[in-house]
Amino acid sequence: MPTNRKRVRRSRRTWTTTHFHHLQTGYDFLHDAFSKDAGLEPHQGGGEVLPGMRECWKQHGDQITADRIARHPGTRPWYWWIHKGLITEGTDIDEQLGMTQADWLAAHHELGPDELRRVNEPSHLLHLANIRRELAWLAGDPESQVEFCEEWDKYAYPVTENETEEQS
Question: pLDDT, tens digit, for every residue of 40-94?
């Protein structure tokens, strides 16, 4: 007796670390992940949802998110925001949310207790402050540039006790 057999299409796709990085950041810096798969030219686009991303996210999204939280508490991978429907394209997540990722995640109870503790550590807050100063520098804000240079001088060229005694 004949049977109807449907072929089950199985993905034999292998994902590389550059695919995971593309989902983390929204960029394919080496043009070796989804951009190449979609036939885009090198350095074209950025922050675009491309074919294959959804499939890769279904398979590895939990691990990619866990890695991101471990390395950068108070943030989520770029595709996490896309998958949740909170942003559509582009890579400036904070601008599209209207607040920092950490603030949004805290307001919507998406931060676990350990992550919340790590986000509020002084070293993490200093890191965020430095990033904000660097962004202000790039934006061309003169007051922030002066402040940034003064802070940089403190850390880059600290005055030792011996130097203070020699100057006296």
Answer: 766 655 677 888 888 999 999 999 999 988 888 889 999 999 999 988 887 788 8
Neighbours of 56 (CB within 10 A): 21
The amino acid occupying position 161 is E
Rounded Cα distance, 23 and 68, in Å: 11
Alpha-carbon distance 160 to 164, whole Å? 6
Q: Are 26 and 75 in contact (CB under 8 A)?
A: no
Q: Where are the alpha helices (DSSP H) in the chain?
A: 17-25, 34-37, 53-71, 78-84, 93-97, 101-107, 113-119, 122-139, 142-156, 161-167
- Whole-model pTM over 0.70: no
Using DSSP's 3-state secondary structure scheme, residue 60 falls into helix
The token duo for 28 is 């394919």
